[in-house]
Write a structure and sequence with these properties.
Elements: H1 2-16, H2 30-45, E1 48-65, E2 68-83, E3 86-101, E4 104-110, H3 138-148, H4 163-173, E5 190-191, E6 194-195, H5 197-200, H6 202-211, E7 217-221, E8 232-236, E9 245-252, E10 258-262, E11 267-271, E12 285-292
Antiparallel strand pairs: 1-2, 2-3, 3-4, 3-11, 5-6, 7-12, 8-9, 8-12, 9-10, 10-11
C-alpha cells in the first residue's frame, strides 16, 4: 500500500514537470488531472514552468471502516520553478486520505479542513479611544511567515483551521499591537488562552482590516501588484461574501505579482490567485490589504 501511494504521488509530481503530459502508467482520477492541468495553465500564463519536483510522504493514521482500510497521509511537494531567468522554490503540504480494499486503492482525496465562520457581531473602536502607534516591520513579519509556514509556534494556540491564526501571528511579529482584551468582539488580540474573533476567523479579520482606526490598520487596494511584502490577501472562494482564507505576501515574482505563504493547506511562495487550489471556484473574490503605519 505504501508503494502504491508512492507511485500515485510520483505520477502527479512528474505530470507537473516541464511539458510532460503522460509521465506514468498510474491512472489518476479526473479531478486530480484537472488540478494538474489548472496548475500548468497558471504557469503558462506566467511564462513559468516547473523544472523539478521533489515529494515526501508520511502516513499519519490508519483505521479500518466497514472492511476498508483508511490511510491518512501527508505529502510535501517542493517545486523548482523557472520564470524567465529567475528560479525559486514553491512548497505545498496537504493531508490526504486513501481507501483500500483487498490491498487495492479505491479512492485517494485531499482532506479538507472545515472553515470556521463562527463569530458574533463585532464592534468598531470609537474616535475617543487612544490610538496605538506602531511602525510595521515588514521584514520581521516575512521572516516569521517563513519560519512557521509549516510548523506551529508553541507560544500560540493551534486551531484545526489555522490560516488566520497564522496570519495574525505574522502581523504581530511585524509589530502590530494587540488591543481589545477580554472582549472577543472588539479589537485584535490573543491573550491568556483567549482571543478575538478577528485574530482567528478569516471573515472577521477581513472585516477588521476593512475599517480599523486603531492599532493594526490597513488600506484596501485594487490590484495585487500594489501590495508589498507583509501585506495580506483575503479570499472568498465561493463569492458569497463570507471570506474563508487569508495569506501573507512574502515575495514578488518576475512580473511583480505576489507570492504568498499560508496555513491550513500549508503553502510557501504560492502564486497569489489560488487558481490551482481545490477550493478555487469561478466565483472567487479577493480583498487586497496594504498594512499601514499609524
Amino acid at each position: 500500500m505504501k508503494s502504491t501511494l508512492a507511485k500515485v504521488v510520483e505520477a502527479k509530481a512528474q505530470l507537473l514537470v516541464g511539458n510532460t503530459r503522460n509521465a506514468s502508467s498510474v491512472q489518476l482520477p479526473e479531478k486530480e488531472l484537472g488540478l494538474i492541468q489548472r496548475k500548468k495553465e497558471l504557469l503558462d500564463e506566467r511564462s513559468a514552468e516547473i523544472v523539478k519536483c521533489h515529494t515526501n510522504s508520511q502516513i499519519i493514521g490508519k483505521k479500518e471502516v466497514d472492511g476498508k482500510l483508511h490511510l491518512n497521509y501527508l505529502v510535501h511537494y517542493q517545486y523548482l520553478i523557472r520564470q524567465n531567468k529567475n528560479l525559486y522554490v514553491e512548497e505545498q503540504c496537504e493531508e490526504r486520505r486513501a481507501i483500500f480494499t483487498s490491498n487495492k486503492l479505491i479512492t485517494d482525496e485531499e482532506v479538507l479542513k472545515e472553515v470556521d465562520y463562527d463569530y458574533e457581531p463585532m464592534e468598531r473602536e470609537t474616535t475617543e479611544e487612544r490610538n496605538l502607534d506602531f511602525r510595521y516591520n515588514r521584514l520581521a513579519a516575512v521572516q516569521y511567515a517563513e519560519r512557521w509556514w509549516n510548523d506551529y509556534n508553541p507560544k500560540y494556540k493551534k486551531f484545526n483551521d489555522n490560516c488566520t491564526n497564522y496570519i495574525s501571528q505574522c502581523l504581530h511579529a511585524g509589530g502590530a499591537p494587540m488591543y481589545g482584551h477580554p472582549n472577543r468582539g472588539k479589537g485584535w488580540w490573543m491573550q491568556n488562552n483567549n482571543w478575538s474573533y478577528s485574530w482567528s476567523v478569516a471573515n472577521a479579520l477581513r472585516w477588521y482590516l476593512s475599517g480599523s482606526q486603531k492599532g493594526l490598520q490597513a488600506k484596501e487596494v485594487s490590484s495585487p501588484k500594489e501590495l508589498l511584502l507583509g501585506d495580506v490577501i483575503c479570499y472568498d472562494f465561493e463569492g458569497d461574501e463570507r471570506f474563508n482564507h487569508n495569506t501573507i505576501v512574502v515575495a514578488k515574482d518576475s512580473q511583480g505579482y505576489p507570492l504568498v505563504n499560508a496555513q491550513s493547506q500549508n503553502s510557501r511562495m504560492r502564486y497569489w490567485s489560488y487558481y490551482d487550489s481545490t477550493a478555487y471556484t469561478p466565483n472567487i473574490k479577493y480583498k487586497f490589504f496594504h498594512i499601514i503605519n499609524n
